[in-house]
Amino acid sequence: MSPEFLLTSLIVVASPGTGALYTIATGLGRGPRASVVAAFGCTLGIVPHMAAAMLGLAAILHASALAFEAVKWAGVLYLLWMAWNTLKERGAMRVSGDPDPRPPIAIIVHAVLINILNPKLSIFFLAFLPQFVAADEARPLAVMTALSAVFMLMTFAVFALYGLFAAAVRDHVITRPRVLAWMRRGFAAAFVALGARLAVQQR
After folding, report:
1. What was the pLDDT predicted at 161?
2. Checking CA distances to 52, which of 61, 120, 173, 191 falls within 20 to 30 Å?
């Protein structure tokens, strides 16, 4: 496994995006345990894109304007719904001093959907993974699977760190209602901005 792959993967994983934003918001809103669950869910959300890249399904998204647009607009609508829920204190930024009433599966489902409904991820992996597989590799699928596993481990580790850091400052936030209100608006605006960015993306 090349240093170039590890460095490129780290840059991609650490770059702010919908998954990182959701994990941070969950850490602030619901505490450390929920933030780790969110990080796990975001990592699971990568699996369909990795599989699509390996099976060539991402090429269909790239070639078919209708398929790409359908997935893209579903993602846009989901991000806008996340923004609305954040403002209404029903989403990731619902803050309570009591234990998180939502089961972990609910957090995981939200996290997985955030990543699944981004067609750019499939196309990214279609272009990204093959670069690190030698042309004469006898078992390219096995190598791509190993690279994907490393990428997922890095994703979970980085996102969990983001979420745990957010959870660490949670007590300082929930005791300041004005700060919490502005943070909630900020996260809602960020979800809208990410939705707008996804809306203008082309194949």
Report:
1. 94
2. 191
